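Hi support team,

I'm opening this ticket because the web form for multi-chain structure prediction keeps timing out on my end. I have pasted the exact lines I submitted so you can reproduce it. The total is 1031 residues across two entries, so I didn't expect it to be a heavy job. Is there a limit I'm missing, or should I split the entries? Thanks in advance, R.K.
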Amino acid sequence: MTRLKVRPSTERGGRKDYISIKNFGFWYGSKKALESISLDIPERQVVAFIGPSGCGKSTLLRNLNRMNDLVDNIRHEGDIQIDSRSIYDPGLEVISLRRRVGMVFQKSNPFPKSIFENVVYALRVVGVRDRALLEEVCETSLRKAALWDEVKDRLHDSALGLSGGQMQRLCIARAIANRPEILLMDEPCSALDPIATGKIEELIHELKEQFTIVIVTHSMQQAARVSDRTAFFYLGKQVEYDTTEKIFMNPSQPQTEAYISGRFG
Amino acid sequence: MDSSDKKPLQPLDESRFQVSPWTLRVDTWMGRLISFGGISVVLAVLGMLVFLVWQVVPLFTGAKVTSQPELRLPAAVVAFGEDEYGALPFIGLADGTIKFLQSSDGAVTETWTPELAGRHVSAVRAYSRQGLVLLGLDDGSVQFAKITYRVEFTSQGDRHLSPQVKLEKPLTVGKLTSPVRDAWVAQSANGSLVVLQQELNGHPVLTATRLLERKGLGGRVTVIPGTPSVVAEGVTDIAEVLVPSTADTVLVRRRSHEVLVYNYNENTEAFALTQTFKPFANTAQPEISSAGLIFGNVSAVFANRQGAQEVWSLYPQKQPDGRSLRRWGLIHEGETLPGVPQGIFPAEGNKCYLVVAGDRLQIRNMTTGSLRWEGPAPKGVQQVIFSRNYERFTALTSEGKLVRWKLEDRYPEASWSTFFGKIWYEGATEPAYTWQSSSGSDEFEAKYSLVPLFYGTVKGTFYALIFALPIALLSAIYVSQFLRPEYRNIVKPVMEIMASLPSVVLGFLAGLWLAPLVDTHLISIFCVILILAPLGLLVGAIWAGLPQPWRRQVKPGLEFVWFLPILAIFVTLAWQLGPWVESLLFTVKEGQTGTAIVDFREWWRQVSTLGYDARNCLVVGFAMGFAVIPLIFTIAEDALSNVPQSLVSGSLALGASRWQTVWKVVLPTALSGIISAVMIGFGRAIGETMIVVMATGNTAIMEANPFSGMRTLSANIAVELPEAPAGQTHYRTLFLGACCLFILTFVINTLAEILRQRVRDRYKVI
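Hello R.K., no limit was hit. The queue was backed up. Here is the completed structure from your submission:
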């Protein structure tokens, strides 16, 4: 078994069940993608979802801000609550949910606009016109995303001129400019080189002071490095969910151990 | 896998690393083939342009004139003319003798002497085109000598002409019995006119007499002179008499540089002074040195001693008493001539004239004022005649020579101003852009202004796009971004089938079904159009205001299912509302009886003072819109659908609504594709032919009026090319129209492409 460097779990203040997934099942058409998932995600911690491809971890992540609504023929059972309120509450606008739950995608997807316009997009959408405020938010977001120094002289150049790692950090800056409560990250480093990956992992550490972060990753090392808690999924089922330390040092399920040690996946 | 690991690897043939020569050859040849295809396309387009330009360029070349051998005349000549081929010119001597000369060497082939029974010829005037020599006699009568040429072809195919001269009966048309000093004749379809100049007490006396032809039994024509009326009575300073071939007018130019116009009055059966005008009245030199009537005989060119020119023409003018009468008026001021004008001679078959100015000869076009040709003038030019086909001209000089030229000027009416300028045509009341390529009369001057056609093209395209663009683009946005995919998969192929509908079918429907429908239900149609946008917005607003649980009942992308019945109800209501709105807003009093009539068309005619045609821009807009919508829709929809889903997700994940996502992310990203879609639609609309031919009146008018027809460049080509004689001005002008259309679309497409590239660079997606 590979020894992984595991960051000791740091328990901070905040609700233990900030995000509460209760018996959640999910179907694409007749294909069942998730089966009775139940887990609680504490406030201002990093939770990693790991598991082999097709195990449903991304599906679960995308359900947290209802991005799966865009897909046809979907069905779910059970419930997901954020801050004790169901995200399927008929009175809840999906748009306001997404403003609270930001998302960073696997493939960086900057808009074909300037760096500045990318960062302040969420503010533009809600109708903020105050230039000073926009500039301030742009700067703080870019600073938080550790991109400010690299792009401060070319804020009004196209975002498409950035490197892959810069683009991904831009997408993170764009997501946090919205001041969400929760940040979902769907394999944010899978297309990046180790240096860029390292920068983003550093970033996750800093961001968790303010945000609750859920990250899907294929990299065991990454999960071990950045997360406080880890959930392991296999074939749409939740196999194990515990502190990262426990999962990587002493998993209770043999499947978890097999996956972590690289025997399948 | 484990078991295969243990097997030793089979050594593979080393040749697997070699690329087969066949593969390389195919690769090379396919590369060449593709290059060839691409270059061929470019060459084909260039070739088309070159062909068009090649057809058009001759229009802008001037006339070509080559000198022919001069003929030395055997005697002092007072009149001359020639046959159709210029092979056998005739000369008239002062005693009425007519001699025919061989054009090759000037040898006299035949001589004809009139049998006058003791009377003597005192005036001779030849009309070459009519083959007529008018002999004025010393007893105050006139006699026509008609010249006909019999054409025979020898067995070798050579043409042989034998002239015949027939002297007609003497006509007593004057009031006096003194010798005729000069005589003129004009022949029109309505009768002939003979004008005589005689002398009484040393003063000239002009007598104008209409000749009536009466057909007797057996087709014999007897000519009966009408009552002679004295023209310009008491005018002693007659400088020149011009008799237009309309046979109802005599223009008398006085030495005081005034022109008197006498017109025949049907009621009094006499000529009376109707107008006096003075060319160059506003210039320092009002002294007219030459004047000439132009072919068609409703225009005259005057030149003063300074070489300034003025063209006066007969056209309807408002009189002080409010009536509109045809009077002579100044329509052009021509360029200054290079010397003192000595004579103005009209060409045949077009509006050109030859002017002798100083020692130069110039052929000019009266209408455009353009100089067709200039060359040195022989000494002492007295008279110039053009051949009937405008291929030769001959001058009689005071040195007793016939100087002859061959003329090659196939496009006398062509010039930049003809095609693109505002031109005051003779008979028109003002300068205008006019397209009128043919008429029943030979004397008609074709009008080839491309401006109304440009105008019609732009107008038709504008109405088509104003109708098609919103529908096509909005539906492309809706179908690509909002509609559920299973419906999208139905809508898209249906629209693509629509795109393949032949435009002749659309034109047929537009002309025979849509035009009458629009004509009778215009207000209903307007009501429907006007209600659509507010209805959509209102329903949207109500929908957005509904509580979330209600909205949840409808799946996203299926909202149209319940919107459709509402739409149907309101469209029906609006349609029914049409007549009511029409009676409320568009009731007019009928001019004669004063009864109120409910008719938008009448209302429009009265309020706008513009016309109303049943086949108008709206019909074309609708029909052409239908041709253009599927094109724009398909391409725009593709462009919108090709916006990466990751961008849409990114925007939605940031809390943007679907519409905000479309507006802020999808549309800018797809903008270059949408520009392409619009340009392709534009190109289709601008070049669309059959719909315009069938659904408009094809009237080449320039009016912004949406209820009038139009003629587009492409429809013009389709309608007129079959009737245009190849190689003539008309034919080449149509090619010029095609060339302009080509350049127009080329320029607009190039600009759009530059814009598109810029947009694409700005919004390109990695």
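A quick check on our side: The mean pLDDT of chain B is 87. Let us know if the file doesn't open in your viewer.
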